[in-house]
Amino acid sequence: MQKDIKRLSLILLFMPFALWIVVLIALPHVGMVILSLQEKIAPRVYQYSLHNYIEFVNEPIYWNTLLRTGSISLLVTVLALLIGFPVAYYIAKIAGFRTRNGLFLLCLIPLWVSDLIRAFGWILLLRETGIVSGLLQWTGILGSPMEFLYNDAAVIVGLVYTVILFMIVPLVSTIDGMDNSMIEAGYNLGGNGFTVLRKIIIPYAMPGIVAGCIVVFMLTAGSYLTPILLGGKNSSWFTEQIYDQFITRYNWESGAAFGFLLLAFTSLVVWLGLKLSGQSLSSTVAKS
Amino acid sequence: MINQNKDRAFLWVYRTYVAAFFVFLAGPLLAAGMFAFNDSLFPALPWQGFTLDWFFNDTEPKLGMFHDRRLLRGLYYSAIIATSVSALSVFVGTCNAFLFVRGSFPAKDFFYILMILPLVIPGVILGISILVFASNIASALENNFGMELEFLRPGILLVVLGQFAFVTTITSLVITARLKKFDEEMEEAAFNLGASRARVLRTITLPFLSPALIASAIVAFLVSFENFNTTLFLVGSEAPLTITMYDRMVKVGSTPVLNAVSFFLMVGSGLLALLSVVVQSDKAKSKA
Amino acid sequence: MTSSAEYDLECINVSKHFGSLRAVDDVSLKIPKGSFFSILGPSGCGKTTLMRMIAGFNDATAGDVKIKGKSVLNTPPNKRNVKMVFQHLALFPMMNVYENIAYGLRCNRVNKAETDRRIKDVLERIALPDVANREIHQLSGGQKQRIAIARCMVLDPDVLLLDEPLGALDLKLREAMKIELKLLQHQFNTTFVYITHDQSEALVMSDNVAIMNEGKFEQVGSPQELYHVPKTAFTAGFVGDTNRWSGRVVATDGETVKIETDTGLTLVCKRFGDTAPGDSASVSVFVRPEFIHAAWQATDVDGASGDLVNHMKGTVDSLLFNGANSRVLVRDGSGELIEADVTLTGGSDDIHPGQSVWLNWSQAHTMCFAS
What we know:
The complex is a heterotrimer of chains A (288), B (288) and C (371).
Chain A: H1 2-36, E1 38-42, E2 45-48, H2 51-58, H3 60-94, H4 97-108, H5 115-126, H6 131-139, H7 152-176, H8 180-188, H9 193-221, H10 225-231, H11 238-248, H12 252-277, H13 281-284
Antiparallel strand pairs in A: 1-2
Helix pairs in contact in A: 1-12, 3-4, 3-7, 3-9, 5-7, 5-10, 7-9, 7-10, 8-9, 9-12, 11-12
Chain B: H1 2-34, H2 53-56, H3 69-102, H4 108-116, H5 123-145, H6 156-180, H7 184-192, H8 197-226, H9 229-234, H10 241-251, H11 256-287
Helix pairs in contact in B: 1-11, 3-6, 3-8, 3-10, 5-6, 6-8, 7-8, 8-11
Chain C: E1 7-18, E2 21-32, E3 36-40, H1 47-55, E4 62-67, E5 70-71, E6 82-85, H2 97-107, H3 112-125, H4 141-153, E7 159-163, H5 171-188, E8 191-196, H6 199-205, E9 208-213, E10 216-221, H7 223-228, H8 233-238, E11 243-253, E12 256-261, E13 266-271, E14 282-287, E15 293-295, E16 310-320, E17 327-332, E18 337-341, E19 356-361, E20 367-370
Parallel strand pairs in C: 3-8, 3-9, 6-7, 7-8, 13-20
Antiparallel strand pairs in C: 1-2, 1-4, 4-5, 9-10, 11-12, 11-14, 12-13, 14-20, 15-19, 16-17, 16-19, 17-18
Helix pairs in contact in C: 2-4
């Protein structure tokens, strides 16, 4: 009897999980792929073809945008890691106990502030009538107002800004778990700062680094607001193309194909990242 | 001696770097927040004096956010959506935690990966795939059975489902981590003392899980509130706050009332994030 | 009605199989009212499984469990009047002491006034009258132990099960808690079933001990019986310290067996165990260190029983000084080390490493088992 109850409760627990994954994740994605393989040949008449993908290949703007999105996302990921790692290390290992908790809290509190507000803040700082331009004029460095928005640098700064906390938080958790004596032993055995960092600290922090990089890369490649608001009309971000196909042109078939391409591309990058670092999804993202 | 000076200099540079980082972190948020209190029609310098008009004034042109019908409606829809997403995802997350911590079934590792997956799917793609899926069902039902199912068209239900689809991964991971720390002896002890299964769950297991339940509910609420990418494709006429704000920004341009909303959201999300941290750490201490 | 109601707990041919593993194999026991019963065995011997079957957390594959004469096989664990003190105590950290103890009473719908009275009473009995409002993490290790027992005892169980609850304590506290537990058991006059792999815990506290090995009971008896009259080689080796030889029988004469060890020693032994070893059968021989006398010469008085008929010569390898429990390690001709208790007075006639000594012991203390 106890066995039956166990089996029953297992099935009952499995139901919500299965419903969630099947109805909201698996079927919609299958549907999206099927839709992307359809071509409209007459009003309300469709046939299966690779038309949408062929169009993607034939139109350089499309695949250039995807490549651009991918490469800027990688750059943002690397920048976020380079800027974030020292901060995370400081919080986890250098700062005193009280400072550490305080600084970590400072990272956690703005973690869930919307992309929109972040981008809005940058607009107010960087635009022609913005604070940075104003300050530079006030100090006499600039003679007249200057526009800092609507260029790639602004997009990259804004993206790094938006995602960097998602890099720092998992890094702090991982580095925090590292025993100080491991670092001391490294020095004790004759290592200098650089070798200790390379041979001991970074390998130990690897799950956190990979987790941070995956999340940051996905967030960047999938972001919409930051590139559009800070990059302006010509930001050429791939999510913008998807939005364009779906909402503006109402060409769902091609939009679905673009969506699938973005998903395939980002999955490929994540998969490569996991392979190269020797980590798995459950050992990294699930831990952070 | 030289070495010590070098170390000290290095530490000083390091500290300056970390301080600069936090200035970088705070800058845009401060910029977004401070113009809410500037007595001017534009969110820009120069400073015209302190005012609360952008919150409480009830006449144009300085209509405060608490008198702006559309913003208030956005806030209201956001609250409804976030509350539903939070409740649903904590429920399913709890089921998932029990399923993966307590259950044993074939291909468990595979299903665990499936559970993490929604977190690494770009939000835009989640949005379009659910949009496509729901529309397909709606169209099929309409064409074959003549049923008009309005709730399958973009609107609150789809927004809730779309956000729930990936927020559940977050809640599942938080609750799973906590449940893993639970000592099952505790349940057996309660059982042994005469408690029924339901009572054990109510008096022992759930109280132990409660910090994680509260924290994950807060995080789910915050993620839902700030979500833009998934929501963008699923939204109907009942636009939540981030969408309303974005519309306003693109169509009307930035006005200080948006700063007021930003300030309000930053303070709100900051306080909730703080609460989620406090809830989790306090209980951890009393356990030790 | 059988007489079984006089036993608080009976297990009748209980087995538990996990696949092909026989965790508990045909075990029977009867525990009289109000006694302290221990199940002693190495880890993995099945003692925890047996206890979980008594508590109801595991179903028995075969056999019957009776409490106060009534079978409880179909009673779910939360309805059995068998309470358990867990290995890690499992006190509820989110509740204070009062709420922990009240938990079981509330499950049984005892009213508030009665609950208060019983908690006050049980806290007095465990000599911690003032801790009701403390949080669990404010208690010391020993106090937690007693609260865990109180939490069970307040429910007036027929049997209290204790699953190695002293394991997590440090040595000093463990020694103190042994005595404490014994006193508590006297005070409550409830049957305690205590599970442990630590023989000293079992021997000190118990009225009766069952020695368990590989899912079976090797022997059940009082601590003295187990120590002095073990029935199996496993019991002899597991309970108390012993020197052990294996060898072959060269002659038998009733209870007396003459054997030759693999190292070439000839020993006169007393037969233990139920089966008499035949000629040239292989046997195990056990001698406890306290029965071996180290002396300057062989003491060999023929005839009367209890005489020191076994003796051997060796060199003192080292002294293990431990006050009254000091030992000497002697290396015999074949290079084997033998332990013997010695009295070290600190005077000049004490044994020193490197000296040659004779070891003498009587045949009555030379326990021989067919193997």
